[in-house]
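Ticket closed. Logging final result for FAD/FMN-containing dehydrogenase.
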Amino acid sequence: MASPTRDELAFLADQVRGPVFGRGQDGYAAELAGFQTGFHPRPAVVVGAADAEDVRAAVRFAAERGLAVAVRSTGHGVTVPVDGGVLISTKRLAEVTVHPEGRYARIGAGARWSAVVALAEPHGLVPPSGSAGHVGVVGYTLAGGMGLLAREVGYAADHVRAVDVVTADGDLRHVTAATDPDLFWALRGGRDNFGVVTSLEIGLRPVERIYGGGIYFGSEHAEAVLAFFRDWTARAPETITASVGMIGYPPLPVFPEPLRGRHVLHVRFATTDIAEGPGLIQPWRAVAPTLIDAVGELAYRDAGSIYREPDFAHAYDGNSALLSDLPPEVLDAIIGLAGADAAVGCVVDLRHLGGALAREPAAPSAVSFRAANYILRVLSSPEGVGLAEVRATHQRLFDAVRPWTLGRSLNFVYGERAAADFRSELYEKPTLDRLSALKAVHDPGNVFRANHNIEPARRR
Ligand SMILES: Cc1cc2nc3c(=O)[nH]c(=O)nc-3n(C[C@H](O)[C@H](O)[C@H](O)COP(=O)(O)OP(=O)(O)OC[C@H]3O[C@@H](n4cnc5c(N)ncnc54)[C@H](O)[C@@H]3O)c2cc1C
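Final structure:
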């Protein structure tokens, strides 16, 4: 794939309002900087789109020259090596408008959840956002999006009402279940395979306050805590969404004393049922001695305190498994292969799924594996240990849980991987077949291939 010439770059820069950077030009690296610092995309050209017309011009420019198009907003979800082609950076498309009367928000492709929460909450409304407010709305939602209240609410993708997307022909389409049910189905789950989304409209729910937080236990109680998590989640109503994390804290003064230098389990909860929440969570306090018990009523804007994830850019690599069940073999594998004595430091997140996540929304989507009852995620920093060691450690865990693995979640594949690595693990077979058939209609030349690619079905 030939890189655009200097003249071609000048032509493109003339067509758009935002900045255009060729490889090696001033501003190129800064435009590409994002949350993930361990992997570095190297497109031939980066377009900092200032509006939807810029996205159209960039897609047309790439398509006419046979160049692949990649897209990114915050850089949280870097997954596929980008070497050459045109990368469209959406971070300037960050406009958010909340429509309280219709209970929805219109959200630009570069917006983060925190911006939506800040504008929606004063109206007593909340979006289907996840554990960290700094994650981008569009990338998260197009791959499904499991939020803090996921069992109560379903996937974020289930609440999308309309998508504005620039397709491979350079057209900007307003896609809804009524205007184009097939493309609307494919976009919600097929992520970046069908175009560059410039904005979307998503439903908001009336929520005044939530009840939630986290309880920490020492890792010496890992067996008891994970077994209780399995038994408790088997009975938990769908009004509560819970997860358990495992993490080792370095002995640094920035961490609270009970966690400093310890390997711990962090059980997190969120529910809108303020009345029932305390009673549902109470039994956890008898499982083992607690290191920190920080559960209570909170405003949704403070929900980032439930997971307490780092909000600074850093390097990480990781993967996920959508699980049918949590038999003892799975719990033993988590503790033995990703716990306190793992070969490399692992951050584990085991989330309870089911509830509304298991139900197809009124307008079905390509989000797969709704039958999964849990998702197991693991991530590690490759710094100091190396990517090979990290991947080998994670692989041992994912091999051990394979008999209970239904598939993987595109949102929780972190770090660059060969584009074809997981395709068949990200979608159920009928979904993948339908996506391929629709890809042949909407992107027959596979312009959008710098991703976990759905290849266009061959015409007979
Ligand atoms: C700290 C942290 C917490 C997280 N918490 C959750 C959580 O609670 N629930 C959950 O489901 N996920 C969660 N995630 C995963 C997150 O949803 C994915 O990493 C997602 O890809 C991030 O999207 P982004 O736009 O922020 O990142 P980016 O890296 O900018 O984008 C990721 C990918 O999304 C696609 N994409 C982005 N914008 C567009 C567009 N305009 N058009 C088409 N495709 C586009 C592209 O494929 C791009 O490569 C979390 C991730 C992190 C790092």
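The first helix runs from residue 6 to 15. No further action required.
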